[in-house]
Specification:
This protein is α/β, with parallel strands linked by helices. It has a single domain, classed as Vaccinia Virus protein VP39 (Rossmann fold), CATH 3.40.50.150. The chain has 6 helices and 9 strands. It has helices at residues 5-15, 31-44, 56-68, 80-92, 149-153, 171-183, and strands spanning 48-52, 72-77, 99-103, 106-111, 114-119, 129-134, 157-166, 188-192, 198-202. The protein has a 7-stranded mixed beta sheet with strand order 3-2-1-6-7-9-8, sandwiched between helices. A two-stranded antiparallel sheet has the order 4-5. A hairpin with a 5-residue loop joins strand 8 (188-192) and strand 9. Bound molecules: S-adenosylmethionine. S-adenosylmethionine (SAM) is lined by residues 24, 27-29, 53-57, 77-79, 82, 135-136, 138. The site of S-adenosylmethionine has 16 residues, from helix 3.
Length: 203
């Protein structure tokens, strides 16, 4: 069900993406996760969107911002070829005002006393992130691969920021959410049953 073509086509048609989408089976975010973040973006009209890992998510969120007439996606991508590929789609659709893909190779980063491979960039907003989408780094590279996202971004989130974690049915992502909630008890957690699981956190 994750890569259900009809669900992707429905999103593609809704957003008017007639010139193709950067879809890669098993690597692109699932269509059901995409549906959740697209609906949220169109409804909440976030001004600053931050995302970990670029691709289909970047293109669809950028198009939502264009439809909304407001918003910008900053996407961190560790793989140069994936960053270039996403930029190509952003250019193809004339969405350069709505998304920036930052090539940020992973580097050793100590977070809460543990060393992680994490995106190397200082080029992220100081404050005011309204939507945080976490679909990288890849889970296989290290234990609790996406844990750093919240400790590193938390001081930069707006009061009403909503956080979307993909692959949340995995053991690591469940452990990550437990650790985040222990550290930030004000966070409410809403788990959505999708093919890979989606955790939504908000204050
Ligand atoms: C789960 S993918 C998600 C990418 C993006 N959010 C999307 O929906 O298209 C996470 C990361 O895997 C890497 N990746 C993407 N496609 C890949 C592939 N075919 N093989 C290996 N790694 C890939 C990229 O670095 C990407 O940032």
């Amino acid at each position: 069900m994750t890569d259900n073509p009809q669900q992707y086509h429905a999103l593609q048609a809704q957003l008017g993406l007639r010139h193709g989408i950067p879809f890669t089976p098993n690597w692109s975010a699932g269509a059901d996760f995409m549906r959740i973040i697209v609906d949220a973006c169109l409804q909440n009209r976030p001004k600053q969107i931050m995302e970990c890992s670029s691709g289909l998510t970047t293109l669809m969120l950028a198009r939502c911002c264009q439809i909304n007439g407001v918003g910008h996606v900053i996407s961190l991508e560790d793989g140069l070829q994936y960053a270039d590929n996403t930029r190509g789609y952003i250019d193809r659709y004339g969405l350069g005002d709505y998304a920036s893909v930052i090539h940020a190779p992973l580097q050793d980063t100590v977070v809460d006393g543990t060393n992680y491979k994490w995106y190397s960039t200082d080029d992220i907003p100081e404050a005011g992130i309204d939507m945080l989408v976490i679909d990288g780094p890849s889970g296989f590279i290290q234990k609790n691969s996406r844990y750093p996202a919240l400790p590193l971004f938390h001081p930069r989130l707006s009061e009403h920021c909503v956080i979307y974690l993909d692959d949340a049915a995995r053991e690591d992502e469940q452990a990550i959410v437990t650790l985040w909630q222990a550290r930030y008890p004000e966070l409410k957690h809403d788990f959505r049953v999708t093919a890979r699981g989606c955790s939504i956190l908000s204050r």
